[in-house]
Write a structure and sequence with these properties.
Layout lengths: L1 H13 L3 H4 L3 H9 L3 E6 L2 E6 L4 H20 L1
Antiparallel strand pairs: 1-2
């Protein structure tokens, strides 16, 4: 539980966009983690396919970009 809390705090500070960063962990779970999607492996890469126009799509894209920037800054 402590590990999940620490991971949540780190993601909140470093990667989550404004409106979702203020939500509690349970609300984030329903907004992002419980999103119906399909994980597809193609050409040795993993893709997450979401329904077009799903509200979580924009948030996930912003978070992915923030994590990419963090990875490049630490490399």
């Amino acid at each position: 539980m402590v590990l999940a809390y620490n991971l949540h705090q780190a993601m909140r500070l470093l990667a989550m966009p404004g409106p979702i960063s203020k939500k509690r962990l349970k609300a984030i779970r329903f907004a992002l983690i419980d999103v119906p999607a399909r994980v597809v492996e193609h050409s040795r890469q993993l893709f997450v396919r979401l329904a077009r126009g799903h509200p979580a799509l924009e948030w996930l894209g912003q978070m992915r970009g923030a994590v990419r920037e963090l990875a490049q800054a630490t490399a």
